[in-house]
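Task card 7
Instruction: Convert sequence to structure tokens.
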Amino acid sequence: MLLGKLAQPACSLSKLPPPGAGRRFWGWLNAVFNKVDYERIQAVGPDRAASEWLLRCGALVRYQGYQKWQQDYNGLPTGPLGKYKIEAINATDSCIMYRGFDYLDGLEHVTEIKLQKCIYIQDECLQRLSETKNLQKSLLQLRIISCGNVTDKGIIALHKLMNLEYLYLSDLPGIREKETTVHILQQALPNLELELDLE
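Output:
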């Protein structure tokens, strides 16, 4: 009897999923969270739909006229369509990825974005961000910190954000040509305050 109970946990080890299966599952789930629902954008408006996407992926949003960051998906404010406009996005430790960036297209009031420890953020995401017409007009501050898949190519793409006033770059090991990248950005955006913590 006792031997049977001791042997039972050892037998259950053979039922464990193969190594890496959990990682694949989370990657799949994160991709599902980033799938753009264009009907939802039409139904509730771009700010509400983007809020749902960002919070679902673990990011925070702050609305125009409010100081408090919204972090609870179930606590998203209700009210008339279009009442709450996203002013700031804090994507620290979130799973946002390129696939979901279409949610940003309709946002007209975003002045600041923070991308920190975002494992799915890569050059294509920054290129997409900089090509978003509304963000080219509204975005004033951008912080990119500890996003290991970002290289010089992605940072250089930010030159299209013509109204960007402040850019903070830190812990980006993919940036190999720091001086060249900084020079290109400063040429394209002469009024940009660029703060670097790259070594």
